[in-house]
Amino acid sequence: AVGAVQGYFGGLIDLIGQRLIEVWGGMPVLFILIILASIVPPTFWLLLGLLLLFSWTALVGVVRAEVLRGRNFEYVKAARALGVPNATIMFRHVLPNTLSPIFVISTVQIANAIISEAALSFLGLGMPETHPSLGSLIKAGFDYIQSGSWWITLIPGAVLVVLVLSINLLGDWLRDVMNPRLYKG
Predict the structure, then answer these.
(1) CA atoms of 86 and 1, how far apart (whole Å)
(2) What pTM was computed for the model?
(3) If you compute the radius of gyration of the chain from its CA atoms, what whole number of angstroms results?
(4) What percentage of the chain carries pLDDT values higher than 90?
(5) Which residues make Cβ contacts (< 8 Å) with residue 42, sequence separation at least 6?
(6) How many CB atoms neighbour CB 167 within 10 A?
(7) Buried b (16+ CB within 10 A) or exposed e, 48-85
(8) CA gap 178, 180 in Å, rounded
(9) Which residues of 27-38 are buried (b: 16+ CB within 10 A; e: fewer)?
(10) Dihedral angle over CA of 9, 10, 12, 16, nearest 10
(11) Is the predicted pLDDT of residue 9 greater than 90, yes or no?
């Protein structure tokens, strides 16, 4: 919604919004997560909330650019001339055309969140010991590498790589499916 409002109205709203997004997006997320996880005992919902708090800004720039492009289409100008409210134009006419890149960026952000959680769990700052996590499994197997049991670390690491690749491939597939320019109906 932030990117849609910035792109649709432009001007001062876009300028101020971009500066706020640049400041928020420039924060070192993993370091902030490490600091907060060392202060507050992490739970699943707390980690999810913190990851969502910092990952939404990646979508804003893409949605803003697509809405900036889409607001100059003829059907949007015609809807404005007919007196259709701005919110209706944004949600019914402009935002559906932004779905393809949103799916790609969203799946990349989900993969980044999984890797961040695995990194935090590997460092002992992620999920509690009673909850399974790929990072804690990699950390548990890391102690056995010197004894020749390298596969204990290899298997959760391979699962992490395959999971992230699968999520990214899902995003590419959704982009292709939702792209109206590729529709052959």
Answers:
(1) 13
(2) 0.74
(3) 21
(4) 10
(5) 120, 125, 126, 127, 128
(6) 18
(7) eebbeebbbbebbbbbbebbbebbeeeebeebeeeeee
(8) 6
(9) eebeeebbeebe
(10) 100
(11) no
Residue with tokens 């700052």: 125
Cβ burial of 143 (10 Å; 0-12, 13-18, 19+) is: exposed
3-state secondary structure string, 15-60? HHHHHHHHHHHCCCHHHHHHHHHHHCCCCHHHHHHHHHHHHCHHHH
Tokens of 56: 């939404």
Mean pLDDT confidence for 90-103 = 83
Q: Which two tokens stand for residue 102?
A: 């949103």
The pLDDT value recorded for residue 143 is 79
How do residues 16-58 score in pLDDT, each as one tens digit?
988 988 888 888 877 887 888 778 887 888 888 888 888 888 8
Residue range 110-121: mean pLDDT, rounded: 89
Helix (H) or strand (E) holding 155, with range, is: helix 151-178
Token pair of 37 as six digits:
């996880």
